[in-house]
Amino acid sequence: MPKLLDQIQSPQDVKKLSIKELVQLSQEIRSLIIHTVSKTGGHLSPNLGVVEMTLALHFVFDSPRDRIIWDVGHQCYTHKIITGRKDRFAKLRQFEGLCGFPVREESEHDVYNTGHASTALSAALGMAIARDRKGEDHHVLAVVGDGGLTGGVALEALNQIGHQRDRLIIVLNYNEMSISPNVGAWSRYLTYLVSGQHYLRMKDHAKTFLKAIPVVGWPLIKIGRALEESIKKTFFPGLLFEELGIRYIGPVQGHSFPSLIEVFEEAKGYDGPVLILCVTKKGRGYLPAQNKPASFHSASPFDIKTGGSKSQDKRPSYSSVFGETVMELAQKDDKIVALSAAMPEGTGLDAFSRRFPERFFDVGIAEQHAVDFATGMALEGFKPIVAIYSTFLQRAYDQLYHDVCLMDVPIVFALDRAGIVPADGPTHQGINDIVYLRHLPNMIVMAPKDENELRHMLRSALDYSHPAARRFPKGKVYGVTPDTSFKTIPLGESELLKEGQDLLLAYGNLVYPCLDVAQELEKDGISLAVINARFAKPLDEEKILSYAQAGRTIFTAEEGVIDGGFGSGVRELLDREGRFDLRFKRLGLPVEIYPVGSVDQIKARFKLDTPGLIDQIKSFYT
Ligand SMILES: Cc1ncc(C[n+]2csc(CCOP(=O)(O)OP(=O)(O)O)c2C)c(N)n1
């Protein structure tokens, strides 16, 4: 059979299809997504869940004239495929290939860049009001998941949407899942709305039954209609949205083209904000993903037949070492509690959540709330360990400053995915945390060189009695044998790993690469001592200044942006000591928008891999 997908160059081609053809196209797209992601990795289960919904949106609406904003944006593969990027889809998440999230620079159909959750409603309202002020008449749509709707930003947007009442369409993709099963009172409410499906069906059956009764049938239906408003108030779902000033339509079967097209057409005609609740199945069409949607939320390359990972590397990840260490420490201290913002698996806390369900809190996609919630618990004597990816903790910057640091509250922050993050693109890079934490009063900022030090740092962080943040990268551990007992690292103490004349002061996961660099440079007659800094704050001032006093050249190395980072802290120390004469160089990452690619590719691009570091140091000497 000739492939329908070959004929689809733009959404205009989708509009020409019959329902039967749309069904065929959705199958072809699913197959393309599964085959591509099995090679490239990517957000498999979210994308398989929204194929029909995306096609129906493009069938009914007129992108890019109508603006479609994808919340998080991880579910945009079908949208990319039918908006002229099918031929580049094989290069999804590859260096110089397609980004896995909407990017304005890639296509006029991507009207808003996303990656972090819960922003679409605010952006859509902004665009809707702008449209109205400009006297234009296109549609603005926000597609948001039930997970995305747990984020505070989304709730703030709903608040204003209901107030402004501008024309705007919210498509709520309900699949019961965030990455893991969705949590919270909102989630419970949405589940209640969906269970209203039974009510809808019951209502239709009742009507058919009444119509069949001669004479009294129709009057009874009329009375029923009159009663409906009050029944609705008591039983009928959607009321909360309606009370907020947002028209509610749903629930809709999110894999049925006739239903989707019908409600999208209906929504088009409404002169105010409207929310359509679509029920979809995450992972639909690929059994392993359907059965384990969380494992396939963001999958690494996998074998299509079995669903098993293609990776041969059996080393544990930093996240899982972190999760196990939290468990070990929690066994001996019942004041320890662990928090995650919708990422129990990703942060390695899933085992902890099963072992200590009473001491684990998944707060939803709510990083700001997580930090203040932890502050409250800590002030009452608990010891919260808050595990949030470096990029997502950016959300809670004010809470870190205003609540945690000004009150000097002892909370341990575990910043996972710190440094360069592969494949997800600029929105997910964990490169700013050193900068945004370093200048907060009372905050201790540290990074381990390997998994053994990660364990000691977690123990130490609990002992310091101040807010303490510890970053570690995505991926597999270095592969050292961990010590059998914990030790507390004296606050601010660095570790000399190699003697030498000048100083290479390395931070976190750049410590071992810097050792390699120093060994290599010995061959060229460059002698560098290598120090594992451990702390970006407080710095080991005594040790650093001993090299300064001897007039040595100092290099700093960090996997984070240079401006305001670890090296900048060292520079500030030298300035305070009046050492403007010293030769000094910061090695790190520039402030710019990062390309999609693997860690190695991005490091090579910014000369932060071993050859790049060698090159930078050598040229500094010449
Ligand atoms: C601020 C922020 N925190 C955490 C994440 C990680 N994250 C990506 S997708 C996702 C779940 C989204 O769930 P939902 O919106 O329901 O979409 P679904 O995957 O179910 O389609 C999470 C927590 C994020 N992208 N942004």
List the helices and strands and how they pair.
Blueprint: H1 11-15, H2 19-40, H3 44-49, H4 51-60, E1 67-70, H5 77-85, H6 120-134, E2 140-145, H7 152-164, E3 168-174, H8 185-211, H9 217-234, H10 239-243, E4 247-253, H11 257-268, E5 273-279, H12 287-291, H13 318-332, E6 336-340, H14 350-355, E7 360-362, H15 367-379, E8 383-389, H16 390-393, H17 397-405, E9 412-416, H18 433-438, E10 444-446, H19 451-463, E11 468-471, E12 495-498, E13 502-506, H20 511-522, E14 528-532, E15 535-537, H21 541-549, E16 554-561, H22 566-576, E17 584-589, H23 599-605, H24 610-621
Parallel strand pairs: 1-2, 2-3, 3-5, 4-5, 6-7, 6-8, 8-9, 9-11, 10-11, 13-14, 13-16, 16-17
Antiparallel strand pairs: 10-15, 12-14
The chain binds thiamine diphosphate.
Structure commentary:
This protein is an alpha/beta fold. It has 3 domains: 5-291, Thiamin diphosphate (ThDP)-binding fold, Pyr/PP domains (Rossmann fold); 318-471, Thiamin diphosphate (ThDP)-binding fold, Pyr/PP domains (Rossmann fold, 3-Layer(aba) Sandwich); 495-621, Rossmann fold (3-Layer(aba) Sandwich). It is built from 24 helices and 17 strands. The strands form 3 sheets. It has a 7-stranded mixed beta sheet, with helices on both faces. It has a 5-stranded parallel beta sheet with strand order 1-2-3-5-4, with helices on both faces. α7 links the parallel β2 and β3. α2 (19-40) crosses α4 and α13 (318-332) packs parallel to α19 (451-463). It is globular and about 100 Å long. Mean pLDDT is 94; it is low at 198-205. It binds thiamine diphosphate. Thiamine diphosphate (TPP) is lined by residues 46, 49, 72, 74-75, 116-117, 145-148, 173, 175, 177-179, 282, 341-343, 365, 367, 392, 395.
